Amino acid sequence: MPKQSSLPTIAEAVERALAEVQAPTSLDVLLRRILTIRPSEANNPTGSIRTHIRELEGRSVVYLDSKTVSPLRVAAVGARFRVPLSGPEVADGALAISPGFDGWVNHFDEKQNLEFISDRHKVLPTRVVTIQGHVNIFPLGDHEIQRQAFDLADWFLNIHAHENDTILLKLCTDESGRFTDSSDSHRLSQSKQQ
Fold it and tell me: Cβ neighbours of residue 114 under 8 Å, at least 6 residues apart?
């Protein structure tokens, strides 16, 4: 067996094994694959791995039942979520990444690789920008904050976006993190890394 220092950490081994999984799989199969990546001579080699996987539940892995797991990117295919537009977002022409996309964009490598695609399958020009906002924190008063957002000013103008409009998105593929609007307006995707 290789020295412990030359082995990947449990977290790295779990991440590598989950990246290889393309469909729901038995927890035992996943554990065997992780132990292939990171062998162990412990009395209960799967104990710490099971604990680590349990800690990832809901963030990058989903338990479909007590013996079956799936990476979130695979299990979430077909998941739909709405992103409401605030008045300042419409005025700035920028869709704030947080909180509407928090549960999704964190599973992709780079926010800059996410892009919006119209219902006619045309890529909408966008980029990640920083927008200024104000929050009133009692008793401290008004404070300026900075948030990351998708610059979609031209698109907002074309669709005549208004405050309280919502964008309905659906995760439609696990390979590239593509999102599509399940009605007929727009979708978000992550372009494949080259």
Answer: 105, 108, 128, 150, 177, 188, 189, 190, 191
Cis-peptide, bond into residue 125, ω within 30° of zero = no
Can you give the pLDDT at residue 82?
A: 80
Q: Which of 49, 65, 47 is nearest to 12 (CA)?
A: 49
Cis peptide leading into 99, omega within 30 of 0? yes
pLDDT of residue 112: 60
Q: Quote the CA–CA distance of 153 and 163 in Å, as a whole number.
A: 14
Q: What is the pLDDT of residue 179?
A: 52
Q: Which residues contact 20 (CB under 8 A, 6 or more apart)?
A: 33
Q: What is the CA radius of gyration of the chain?
A: 21
Q: Check if the beta carbon of residue 36 is closer than 8 Å to that of residue 83.
A: no
Helix or strand (DSSP H, E) at 54: helix 47-56
Output the pLDDT for position 133: 79
Q: With a cut of 70, which residues of the chain have pLDDT below it?
A: 1-5, 102-115, 117-120, 170-194
What pTM was computed for the model? 0.59
Helix (H) or strand (E) holding 188: strand 186-190
